[in-house]
Amino acid sequence: MKKALAVLCILLVAGFSVFAAVDVKADDLALGAITEDSSLDGLTISVGTGAVSVDSSSAPAVDADGNLYSNVLTLSGDSLISFSAEECETLNVRGAVASDGSAYSLLLSSDSGLSETLTGTSEDGVTAVVEYVISATGTYTLSAAGGTASIYQVSVE
Prior knowledge:
Blueprint: H1 2-15, E1 22-25, E2 32-33, E3 38-40, E4 43-46, E5 51-62, E6 68-76, E7 80-85, E8 90-96, E9 105-110, E10 115-119, E11 127-133, E12 138-144, E13 148-156
Antiparallel strand pairs: 1-13, 2-5, 3-4, 4-7, 5-6, 6-13, 7-12, 8-11, 8-13, 9-10, 9-12
């Protein structure tokens, strides 16, 4: 059954490949505070009453796959990122591991009522990776699950 579902997801994603994939890196954003809602490549950053900024890392991070990240997008308060996704697409988020070693977590919500805390894993102690297979077509939001979220890259494919 699981194999059949996996094959179905692959076929659905292939069938919907005409939809634009999201792939935004903090390195692609201008440094400084983001003070108003903005959109980039299928992703919308909503400031709300929280704070959003793009900051240069004091020491660029290199993840386990060799990707280099010089900037970090920081969300706090009720600020969030929203995007559209199709069923069976995969959300990938790469973020900065907290200096205190606490778990990297994000809150994923959808227009269909989903509300789930996603916890990232880290192979290198520097970057955390969150992967989530989208269960239904719709609009999704990512926000800090508690306090602040530091994001290097968000992609949906």
